[in-house]
Structures are given as structure tokens and as C-alpha cells.
Design brief:
Length: about 210
């Protein structure tokens, strides 16, 4: 679905004109934010990449969401109902706009117009997030590692309008994202190559069927 919205222009105007926003920079590996109850934080990734990661009580890691430029994230989208910890970790250098959802319907000191714009724009911004979450639900609904890999590769191929594409994450992160064992996933990638279904050169994958 095409969204008729220049998100980059919107975020640039919003961070410049609204006194209720804050922009911060993060280096690769830094914690961008943690999800806490009742903070109602809404964030927009202005550039770079990050992952929303869950650690369970045993210390096991799962990638809940891969966050790309102009994606929304924050506690307002993930209500914490368990003891599992949620962290957003920078995968590369990135800049993030922070905004408290509590100010959504309140004017700031500059009496800026961007609160009104945000009200009308948020549905379009959120639509991208919903589409990404639906994609992951579709991937996790696949029963086998092979089915998950092929579904993910098909999605990347469609997005890039090409049979050849770069994986946006490491194989370790991909295994976490697909909720599969990394060793089993690497074996399945080998089988897919041997079966003539894919060609792989490092992080570059080509669908052959």
C-alpha cells in the first residue's frame, strides 16, 4: 500500500518546531531505550537501524522487531504485561526523535502547529508499523525453518523489486528474528543452495525460482 506522506519532511519539521520533542544520537550497540510501564514514549527512527529485543528470565534473546528509518516504536505500542525485558538496541549509528504520547493533545510553549499535524499524520505513520508487524506474524506462522526463510526472502525480493537483495541483518539476528536455531537455519540455507532454490554470496541472496 502506498502511503501519501513525506515522513522525512514531517519528522524534520516536527523536531525543529516542537518544543516537546527531543532528538538523540546513538552509536552501534548502544541502548536507545527500554520499555517501562506508564512512560508512554513514542519514538521515530530518523536514520540508521535498530532492533527491539526481548530477554526472557533465562537470558535468552529474541528480536521482536527490526526498526528501519522512519519507523515508529516505543512503549505506547508495546504494553508490558510480563517480567520480560524489552530493549531497543542500535544496530548502526542512528538518530532518534523522542516524544511523549502524553503531550499528544497538548500544545507546546511555541504553540506549534505540529501537534495538529501529528494527530492527522499518526495513522499513516502507524500503518507502516502495522504492516511490518503483520509481516513478522506471517513469518512466524510458517511451520518449518525452510518455509520461514523462503517467505522472508520472498518479502525482501518484492520490496526490492529484484530477485537479488541484501539481507538487512546478520545471520545470528535473522535466526533470532525468525525464532529458529541458528545452526539449523545455516544448514537449511546450505540445502536451499544445493537444491538450486537460492544463490548466496555473503549477505547477498538471489532467488532462483
Amino acid at each position: 500500500m502506498k502511503i501519501d506522506l513525506d515522513i522525512t519532511q514531517f519528522t524534520n519539521n516536527f523536531k525543529t518546531n516542537c518544543s516537546k520533542t527531543q532528538t538523540k544520537s546513538f552509536s552501534k550497540g548502544e541502548i536507545v531505550t527500554t520499555y517501562l510501564v506508564n512512560r508512554n514514549q513514542l519514538c521515530i527512527l530518523l536514520d540508521g537501524a535498530a532492533d527491539l529485543i526481548r530477554y526472557d528470565s533465562n537470558g535468552s534473546q529474541s528480536i521482536i522487531e527490526h526498526i528501519s528509518k522512519n519507523d515508529l516504536f516505543g512503549e505506547v505500542f508495546n504494553q508490558i504485561k510480563t517480567n520480560n525485558e524489552l530493549f531497543v538496541i542500535a544496530k548502526k549509528k542512528c538518530n532518534v526523535l523522542f516524544f511523549s504520547y502524553d503531550y499528544f493533545n497538548k500544545k507546546c510553549k511555541r504553540n506549534c502547529k505540529f501537534h495538529e499535524i501529528l494527530t492527522s499524520t499518526l495513522p499513516s505513520l502507524a500503518l507502516n508499523k502495522i504492516m511490518n508487524l503483520n509481516t513478522r506474524i506471517e513469518l512466524l506462522s510458517k511451520r518449518t525453518t525452510r518455509e520461514k526463510l523462503l517467505a522472508y526472502f520472498s518479502i525482501l525480493s518484492s520490496r526490492n523489486i529484484s530477485k537479488t537483495f541484501n539481507l538487512s541483518m546478520s545471520f545470528t539476528d535473522l535466526a533470532d528474528y525468525l525464532s529458529v536455531d541458528r545452526s539449523a537455519m545455516m544448514r537449511e540455507l546450505k540445502y536451499l543452495k544445493e537444491d538450486g532454490i537460492i544463490k548466496k554470496d555473503g549477505n547477498v541472496v538471489t532467488l532462483l525460482v
